[in-house]
Amino acid sequence: MVDHPVNLGQGAALQTGIEYALQDPAMTSIVTFDADGQHRVVDAAAMVQRIESGEADVVLGSRFLDDRTQIGPVKRLVLRTAALQTRWSTGMPLTDAHNGLRAFNRHVTSHIHITQNRMAHASELIQMIAAMQPRWAEHPVEIIYTEYSKSKGQSLLNSVNIVADLLFR
């Protein structure tokens, strides 16, 4: 287990986890996910299978590729707007740019260097993927929103902080 002595944020945690995983020469794929229990292991396993089969180098989860995820209209609008902005800024036609469930092969993982410690890391990560131009795919995933995951999540107003982090880094 790897631990930061103080909470540095999700981006820092992901970068530390990536660096730790890359120390294992047998590691062929890595999965990132939010720690609030909203992602399903079965979805992560299916995404890794797509990597391991050689279909893609990166598989990004999307809660919008099917109707399993129950999401409120305001959150849906904010996430759809973020996906449109990401499409505009990166050229990647994503349906869900801020889904924490992602799978990468070792080669792509070795080129990920997250500098945004807080929530802006999600946008930064998509920008890195777009610049690398790996073979990528989206995969339908179900997000399970519980009272716990909702309490750990970001407020919709925090999207302003994410934009500020990206613009003024």
Provide structural commentary.
- The chain is α+β, with helices and mostly antiparallel strands and 169 residues long.
- It has a single domain (10-167), classed as Spore Coat Polysaccharide Biosynthesis Protein SpsA, Chain A (Alpha-Beta Complex).
- Helix content is 44%, strand content 11%.
- The chain has seven helices and four strands, in the order αβαβαβααβαα.
- The protein has helices spanning 10-22, 41-52, 73-90, 106-109, 121-132, 147-152, 159-167, and strands at residues 29-32, 58-62, 102-105, 136-140.
- Strands 1-3-2-4 form a four-stranded mixed sheet, sandwiched between helices.
- The chain is globular.
- 32% of the residues are buried.
- Mean pLDDT is 88; it is low at 159-169.
Q: Give me the side-by-side strand order of the main sheet.
A: 1-3-2-4
Q: Find the structural class using helix and strand composition.
A: alpha+beta
The CATH homologous superfamily is named Spore Coat Polysaccharide Biosynthesis Protein SpsA, Chain A
Can you summarize the main beta sheet? 4 strands, mixed
Number of domains: 1
How big a fraction of the residues is strand? 5-15%
Q: Would you identify the regions where 5 or more consecutive residues have pLDDT less than 50?
A: 159-169
User: From the 3D coordinates, which CATH architecture would you assign?
Assistant: Alpha-Beta Complex
Terminal Cα separation, in Å? 30 Å
**Element-level helix/strand string:** HEHEHEHHEHH
Mean pLDDT: 88
Based on DSSP secondary structure assignment, what is the total number of beta strands? 4
Rg estimate, integer Å = 15 Å
Shape: globular
**What is the top-level CATH class?**
Alpha Beta
Portion of residues within helices: 40-55%
Q: Which fold name is given in CATH as the topology?
A: Spore Coat Polysaccharide Biosynthesis Protein SpsA, Chain A
Number of helices: 7
